[in-house]
Every structure is written in structure tokens, then in C-alpha cells.
Design brief:
Structural class: mainly alpha
Shape: elongated
Oligomer: single chain
Largest sheet: none
Length: 201
């Protein structure tokens, strides 16, 4: 009888140890986004990604989303782009949480009856207006100043004094903002022309 009790107790101990080990490995497998990314991600909407993507179409959407997860602000990410000219690529662990976005999945800038499209367009306009006001570019916009895309974001020349370096950085920011505005207006004009052509046909 005592042997049967010993066998039952031993079996119960083995089952307990097995369940404890497997539950520990499962909990380790379910890592939180903070553990995977190395920081606590902010709340990011697709509209935020689209807003920056429309102003800077050459920057991959994944780079934009990754930076927004850090900053949580369209303005901070835009300023970083204007100052550095690029955004860091996300690490491989990022793609375990957010599947890689293809360039074709990026919603086009178009003036349609869709509420979401018009909302994102108005958000872009609002963001651009605030940047133009912030960097006091209203006069240059009214004059219709155009910026050559090839010269924007190139390698800066190291100036002699701090004042000249600051002025050079300020001018580079202004050119990038004006170039982004040019691209946006060109895309909007193209979308309107396409819509008018479809309506007439």
C-alpha cells in the first residue's frame, strides 16, 4: 500500500514540475512590445504615418512608424527628418510586431469623396501650414519660390562660425519644407486632374 502512495506522490511531483517548466517557457515566449523594441512604444495611427509619408515620399513607411513609436509625435519626427535628412531603419525585432509594409500599400494622396482620404489631406495641410508659420516662410510661399529637388538634403558645407552654421541649417530646413510642399501640391494637382478626366469621360 505504501508503495502505491509513493508512486502517486512521485507522479504528482513529476506532473507539477513539468507544468511549472512548460508554463515558464511559455511566459518567456510571450514577450511584451517594450521588451522586443527596447523602449515603450507610443500609440501610432496610420494617419500619422501617412501624413509624414506624403511630405517625405522617399522615406520608407517602416522607418517612419518606428520613429513615431519612439516620439509619438508627427512634429518631432518631421523635425528629425528636416535636421538629419533620414530616419533610422527599424531593427529585425520590429518586424515581429509590425509586418513589413510594401511601398504599394501606401495610400496615395488623392482628393476623393472618402472621409479618411480627406481627413489625411487636411492633416497634411495643417502640418505644412504649421511648419511654414514656424519657420516664417509665408513670404517665400507667397512669392511662389521653387526649390530644386536635387539640391535638397545634400551634404552641408561646414561653415567657419556658429552663426553661419546656424543660418545654413535654418536655410536647409526651409528648403526641405518648401520642397515637401511642392511635392504635395504637385500630387494634389495631379489627383485633381485625374479626377476631372474621369468625370468628363
Amino acid at each position: 500500500m505504501s508503495e502505491v502512495v509513493n508512486v502517486i506522490v512521485a507522479f504528482a511531483v513529476i506532473v507539477f514540475i513539468f507544468r511549472w517548466v512548460t508554463s515558464g517557457s511559455e511566459s518567456n515566449g510571450e514577450r511584451s512590445p517594450s521588451d522586443i523594441l527596447g523602449f515603450r512604444p507610443k500609440n501610432v495611427t496610420q494617419e500619422m504615418v501617412t501624413t509624414i509619408s506624403n511630405m517625405f515620399p522617399d522615406v520608407p513607411a517602416d522607418n517612419i512608424r518606428y520613429d513615431l513609436l519612439r516620439t509619438g509625435s508627427v512634429e518631432l519626427t518631421t523635425n528629425k527628418l528636416l535636421e538629419r535628412g533620414f530616419l533610422d531603419a527599424p531593427p529585425a525585432a520590429y518586424f515581429t510586431l509590425y509586418p513589413r509594409q510594401q511601398a504599394t500599400q501606401r495610400p496615395p494622396v488623392a482628393v476623393t469623396g472618402n472621409t479618411n482620404a480627406s481627413a489625411s489631406t487636411s492633416a497634411v495641410k495643417k502640418q505644412q501650414a504649421s511648419l511654414i508659420a514656424r519657420y516664417k516662410l509665408e513670404e517665400r510661399v507667397q512669392k511662389g519660390e521653387t526649390v530644386e529637388e536635387e539640391k535638397v538634403g545634400g551634404k552641408a558645407v561646414w561653415e567657419d562660425s556658429a552663426e553661419k552654421r546656424e543660418a545654413s541649417l535654418k536655410e536647409r530646413k526651409a528648403q526641405m519644407i518648401l520642397a515637401a510642399r511642392q511635392r504635395f501640391l504637385a500630387q494634389q494637382k495631379e489627383a485633381e486632374a485625374k479626377k476631372a478626366a474621369e468625370a468628363s469621360s
